[in-house]
Amino acid sequence: MTLTPLNPALGGTFAPPVMEARRWLDGVVFPPERPLINVSQAAPVDSPPEGLRRAIAEAALNDPAAHLYGPVLGNSELRAEVAAQWSLAYGGEIAADQVAITQGCNQAFCAVTATLAGAGDEIILPTPWYFNHKMWLDMAGIKAVPLATGAGLLPDPAAAAALIGPRTRAIVLVSPNNPGGVEYPAALVRAFLELARARGIALILDETYRDFDAREGAPHDLFADPDWDDSFIHLYSFSKAYRLTGHRVGALITSRSRMAEVEKFLDTVAICPGQLGQIGALWGMRNLRDWVAGERAEILARRAAMETGFTALEGWKMLGCGAYFAYVEHPSALPSPEFARRLVREAGVLTLPGTMFMPETDPAGQRQLRIAFANIDRDGIATLMQRLASVTF
């Protein structure tokens, strides 16, 4: 049989890691007394609060416009709400027309990088990286340049500067980090902005997990810079704070001139973000401040349980922990992909190996795992520690 042509960039992109890991469950039976502990994906599994669900339901039943195309750049009220709340939270000035609503934060990343780089260009990603960022760059023919992180999984601006070449278009940071969990100090984020500005490239900061940052107040001062939009691009997701994963609602904040290019991308791939999800996000922003604070407190308590639990695990090493994730070194001589698959069969734990977050040439990934602990409570974390402690392979 003659195959139709395949885009080599897409064909050379690795398979979705979460879907690959789920296939490890095929044929495995988990007894009732030892059910699967799934720490492979960072996504809320519970429904949004009732008030938010009612707001969506009311719109679905009674608002005809909720079922029509909306503005390409998103609901004007939601854009204005983001601008107002972010301006207050970060001590800066953000206008509604500098905000776009997207079909999830992944689409925000795709849209922004499409305005910055084309095939053959380069974007710097600290490692371990968020695999969907790497996948999109591969699909687009953009070279992902790995920036190894040091102690505490913190990237070094000087090391990044040495990687900037004539085709470098941006540096991407994620804080709190996925997969590492670490929160980047404000001074470090500022140093990366100054580097990007000095070298004429963009700084993309993905703050999907900002609502679960352990620090009080603004995590950085970039929006307080009156010229922030010359180099800085901010990404956000409503999925985690308001449990809207299935509705796909994200946001990006950038300059007005770049927003005109973003609009071209979004109009082509989605026409507009989903109306009902945006209605839910707006209602959540206006009504769920205290509820989100409670969710944050619970996540921070689970983080503390993870940190305490790992201090008692012989041979294991925690490299980073925060927001939804712990990033750890395992004690086995097995490479992490094989170790992770055996954890499913022999410990009833599904997690992701570090090789899914690292270049193939980096041996560190063979010793590392990402544990997405946000979906298990403190009792579940205690059980997880017991199972990891029992591992002998």
Write out key terms for the chains shown.
Aspartate Aminotransferase, domain 2, 40% helix, globular, 2 domains, Aspartate Aminotransferase, domain 1, 4-stranded antiparallel β-sheet, alpha/beta, 393 residues
Structure commentary:
The protein is α/β, with parallel strands linked by helices. The protein folds into two domains: 139 residues, Aspartate Aminotransferase, domain 1 (Alpha-Beta Complex); 239 residues, 3-Layer(aba) Sandwich (Aspartate Aminotransferase, domain 2). Helices cover 40% and strands 15% of the residues. It contains 14 helices and 13 strands. Helix 6 links the parallel strand 3 and strand 4.
Write the layout of secondary structure elements.
Layout: H1 8-11, H2 17-22, E1 37-38, H3 50-62, H4 76-90, E2 99-102, H5 104-116, E3 122-127, H6 131-139, E4 143-148, H7 157-163, E5 168-174, H8 186-199, E6 202-206, E7 232-237, H9 239-242, E8 250-253, H10 256-269, H11 275-287, H12 289-311, E9 317-322, E10 325-329, H13 336-347, E11 349-350, E12 352-353, E13 368-372, H14 378-389
Parallel strand pairs: 1-11, 3-4, 3-5, 5-6, 6-7
Antiparallel strand pairs: 2-8, 7-8, 9-10, 10-13, 12-13
Helix pairs in contact: 3-11, 4-11, 5-6, 5-10, 12-14
Which fold name corresponds to the CATH topology of the largest domain?
Answer: Aspartate Aminotransferase, domain 2
Strand coverage percent: 15-25%
CATH architecture of the largest domain: 3-Layer(aba) Sandwich
Taking all residues together, what is the mean pLDDT? 96
Indicate the CATH class of the largest domain.
Alpha Beta
